[in-house]
Write a structure and sequence with these properties.
Blueprint: E1 7-8, E2 10-12, E3 36-42, E4 49-54, E5 70-71, E6 76-85, E7 91-101, E8 104-111, E9 118-119, E10 127-131, E11 140-144, E12 150-153, E13 157-158, E14 172-180, E15 186-193, E16 202-209, E17 213-220, E18 223-231, E19 249-256, E20 265-270, E21 276-282, E22 287-293, E23 302-310, E24 316-325, E25 330-337, E26 340-341, E27 349-356, E28 361-365, E29 399-401, E30 408-410, E31 416-420, H1 424-429, E32 446-448, E33 454-459, E34 465-471, E35 481-486, E36 500-502, E37 508-513, E38 520-524, E39 535-544, E40 547-549, E41 555-557, E42 562-572, E43 589-595, E44 606-613, E45 616-624, E46 630-634
Parallel strand pairs: 1-26, 2-29
Antiparallel strand pairs: 3-4, 4-5, 6-7, 6-14, 7-8, 8-9, 10-11, 11-12, 12-14, 13-14, 14-15, 15-16, 16-17, 17-18, 18-19, 19-20, 20-21, 21-22, 22-23, 23-24, 24-25, 25-27, 27-28, 28-30, 30-31, 31-32, 32-33, 33-34, 34-35, 35-36, 36-37, 37-38, 38-39, 39-42, 40-41, 42-43, 43-44, 44-45, 45-46
């Protein structure tokens, strides 16, 4: 592990992309509260839209839409160009782009004057492209997430579009313009000028789904004061982006005076049923308390002691020191920090531990190995003996790298799990004179549990682990337990979905996915006995259009269709066959989903499910309200031949 006094020229670290949460909901990677509450919801399943109030993100002095909270549609991109040293004694200019959503950041790096970006995180592969001039012009970025979701952003603007001024670090930013899911569902985002000199210059006022549901957000300056959900399949879209009287549900928000971050702080949220959620603040400066009160409660159900701490993007974020809950639980947190570096003089939180009111504790420890070949003293690598001794930890020209996850996890029982991220291929092949032999990988190489049993992982590329080999303790006489999966990344929408899964006994599950949207089309389980028939499930999909109202109130077909599940067949293969084809002589169960008629507001709602087996069809029918919620069900005993 790295000594506390370590210092170097640079540290290679990116913002957190995933969370490791404590029982109190605090992310142990960053110290921030991982919070989410659904304020509004319309529709159900794929036809739903919600407004979720989540943890804030102050990167670049971003003014959060709920002041001390953000929401799930607050999606924005920041671009900052930085100069970084490399291990060869020179520097390179990096275009670093962070895509911010859900309280997390996806980091993409590109070298100046080169068109490609590289995903820097530890998750499945992602892609960022752009058109236009990204240096000074209105470049347009397009981001493809690991599941095939496409986010297109507004033309790149000055930082003021989605951040307050002055900025803590020079940057440019842009809000999201549209989001398209793999099934074709599209969300369009509409913005309005805030007219504020101390907040984002633009504020989101509407999110509309191509399936009909929408969220409207009224506001003042950068904050939301009122929000509602509507279904544009049943309600005419308002031209003014003001919540109409016939909105399906409405929430109202009030604020108190700004705190240390110079932003209004949410004081209350009144839900559609009239319940009031309250938020209280006490203390001044960079350390204060925040209380969460629920409807009908006279005192906070949770109270957090908060301190501002600088993160990897040079931004002050709210981190939790301690928590007290109404049920008597409490947690105190201590954090570890990154080493200081000339190019990163401010250490940031990276791991730590907590202890609860019963004395039970846990810890999550990260490591910061030196980048191989980054030691420049005494000027040249050692190619002959005797070599120079390793330099002290305070030496100024080392470049540190951060492990993407903890290298040690200590659970509440004191048991420790150790995780290795050092590339074994590099370590084995590096010349003997290379002193620092840990090239950190984005995925773990191995994990050793408290019993001393080590599991080795194989990196299959694109952020996928393709093999887990569990090696027993030495001397046990047991053999390795091996589980493996394969992937096919020809289609980004199914790149992270396993094509085959093989367990330790050699039993294999085979799957196939649709070429476009990546939906599961077949799943074939292993045979109960060697040479036997294999259980099989087949699915088909169809494209259907939503019908929504235009500004004149007339129902019109949406421009683009969406993929929906059409049929699902359960059967078995012929004996000994591994082809995904049903044995025609064996029993089959066919489920057919029946949708609302084209040209109606319910064209994407499942009105009926017909189950056919042994020549008999049983049909269940469903009814919906204007929210798109299921409100009635007519069972198969009614013997309906068609759903109303």
């Amino acid at each position: 592990m790295l000594p506390v006094t370590a210092y170097g020229q640079d540290l290679r670290v990116i913002p957190a992309e995933s969370f490791i949460t404590s029982p109190g909901g605090v992310d142990m990677r960053t110290g921030r509260l991982v919070y989410s509450h659904t304020d509004l919801l319309a529709g159900s399943d794929d036809n739903a839209i919600s407004l979720d109030r989540i943890m804030p993100d102050y990167t670049g002095n971003h003014a959060n839409p709920f002041g001390s909270f953000a929401h799930n549609w607050d999606i924005w991109l920041v671009q900052a160009d930085t100069t970084e040293p490399n291990e060869f004694g020179s520097t390179i200019t990096i275009w670093r782009v962070g895509i911010h959503f859900g309280g997390r950041t996806v980091t993409m790096d590109g070298i100046k004057n080169q068109p490609d970006f590289t995903y820097k995180g530890d998750g499945p592969a992602k892609l960022l492209t752009f058109t236009g001039d990204r240096a000074t012009g209105p470049a347009i970025y397009t981001f493809r997430d690991a599941d095939g979701t496409i986010m297109t952003f507004r033309p790149m603007a000055a930082a003021s579009e989605c951040s307050r001024t002055p900025n803590v670090k020079p940057l440019r930013c842009a809000y999201i313009s549209s989001l398209v899911r793999p099934d074709g569902t599209r969300f369009d985002f509409t913005y309005a000028s805030t007219g504020s000199g101390n907040g984002n210059s633009q504020r989101l006022v509407r999110v509309a789904s191509s399936r009909g549901p929408a969220v409207i957000l009224e506001g003042s300056g950068s904050v939301v004061t009122r929000a509602c959900v509507l279904n544009f399949s049943t309600v005419t879209p308002p031209a003014s982006n003001i919540c109409p009287a016939n909105a399906l549900a409405t929430a109202n928000y009030t604020y108190t005076s700004p705190g240390a971050l110079q932003q209004p702080r949410l004081s209350s949220m009144t839900s559609p049923d009239g319940g009031v959620f309250g938020f209280s603040y006490s203390g001044a400066g960079t350390t204060y308390s925040m209380g969460f009160t629920e409807p009908g409660q006279g005192s906070p159900v949770m109270e957090n002691s908060v301190t501002l701490a600088v993160d990897e993007e040079y931004t002050s974020q709210e981190t939790v020191n301690s928590q007290a809950f109404a049920d008597g639980r409490s947690y105190s947190y201590n954090y570890d920090y990154t080493p200081q570096a000339t190019n990163r003089p401010n250490s940031t939180i990276m791991g730590g531990g907590y202890i609860d009111n019963t004395g039970v504790s846990s810890a999550f420890v990260y490591d910061f190995p030196i980048v191989p070949n980054s030691r420049t003293y005494p000027g040249q690598p050692c190619t002959s003996f005797p070599c120079y001794d390793e330099q002290p930890d305070e030496f100024l020209y080392w470049i540190y790298q951060a492990t993407p996850g903890p290298v040690l996890i200590r659970d509440p029982l004191g048991r420790e799990t150790n995780i290795d991220y050092c590339d074994p291929v590099f370590a084995a092949g590096a010349p003997i004179y290379v002193q620092d032999r840990c090239a950190v990988r984005s995925l773990p190489v191995s994990a050793t549990d408290p019993e001393g049993i080590t599991t080795f992982y194989k990196d299959g590329g694109n952020g996928n682990i393709t093999e887990a080999r569990r090696r027993p303790k030495p001397g046990s006489g047991l053999t390795d337990i091996v589980m493996s999966v394969t992937f096919n990344c020809a289609n980004p929408a199914s790149c992270t979905k396993p094509v085959t899964s093989t367990d330790a006994l050699g039993n294999t599950v085979n799957r196939a996915y649709a070429a476009g949207h990546g939906g599961l089309t077949s799943e074939m389980l292993p045979p109960p006995a060697p040479g036997g028939a294999r259980p099989l499930m087949l699915r088909t999909y169809a494209q259907r259009y939503a019908w929504i109202r235009n500004t004149s109130g007339a129902l019109v077909q949406t421009p683009s269709p969406m993929w929906v599940l059409e049929t699902e067949t359960s059967c078995q293969t012929s004996a000994g066959s591994s082809s995904p084809v049903c044995d025609p002589s064996a029993p089959q169960l066919v489920k057919v989903l029946e949708y609302g008629a084209a040209g109606t507001a319910q064209s994407l709602l499942v009105k009926g499910v017909a189950m056919t087996a042994d020549g008999q069809t049983l049909r269940t029918c469903y009814g919906y309200d204007d929210w798109g919620r299921k409100i009635s069900e007519t069972g198969a005993n009614a013997n309906l031949t068609v759903c109303p």
